[in-house]
Write a structure and sequence with these properties.
It contains eleven helices and two strands; from the N terminus they run ααααββααααααα. By secondary structure, it is mainly α. It has one domain. β1 and β2 form a beta hairpin. It is globular, with a radius of gyration of 19 Å.
Amino acid sequence: MIATTLYLIIYSISLLMLVSLGLAIIFGMMKVINLAHGEFMMLGAYACVLCVNAGAPLWLAFAAAALAVGLFGIVVERLIIRFLYGRIVDTLLATWGLSLFLVGLVTTVFGPQAWSISARFGNVSFGGMNFSAYTFVLIAISIGMVVVTWLIARLTTVGLIVRGTMQDATVASGLGVNRNLVYMGTFGYGAALAGLAGAVLVPITGASPSLGLFFVAKAFINVIIGGHLPLIGTIAASSLFGTIDGFVSYVWSSVVGEVSVLIVAVILLRLLPLGITGRLRSGL
């Protein structure tokens, strides 16, 4: 019982971090309400399936999906988003329209049915229970994405420039920083993380036009509850909601677990309107 509960909690936390990290960059740092975040994940899922069907190993398919969606994100930022910074409602409408367009395009090209691939990782037994070994791959990738993002943000010159530009773009421009390039690269990185998340989910959920709909609400709740420090907040919110979801899902059911997360999120928004990290002054 303890092993199963712990497994479900860790898996739920990792899954939330996986689907939320890209949005934490785009929405949490850039303040861009990207309603097409789920569709970026969907594109990553289909890119992964196409690469695997073409004979590429799974890890290479993950990398190709992240790169493809990252490049697509850069195109979206240059053609749409860069004209809408500071215009929240316009950005919301534009990304909603992009979301509908991508769903319709993918449905037309690939059909409404789900495409799937097999991971062939087998099972792992401990505590008298069998668990899919691939879920441990998902957990490792999720943790790795968070660690790499934190290292880039905190220990590199690029991370310093990005954080400074997001805090005050005018001062950054005065110091010689090309803020258009920073915005473009940051949006592309957030899109790449979303694409990688979609690719990692394929062996579990399959690739379908509706893939993003299952995760985009959770991602937004996670980032909003996390507060103004996107990375720390996302980790904290994922840990809280993942623990609740994993425990309640084991005791009752997954549906009750998701309902419990929603109830706790509403209560937290009432008690902490600025999010979990709302009282913290600096960080990421």
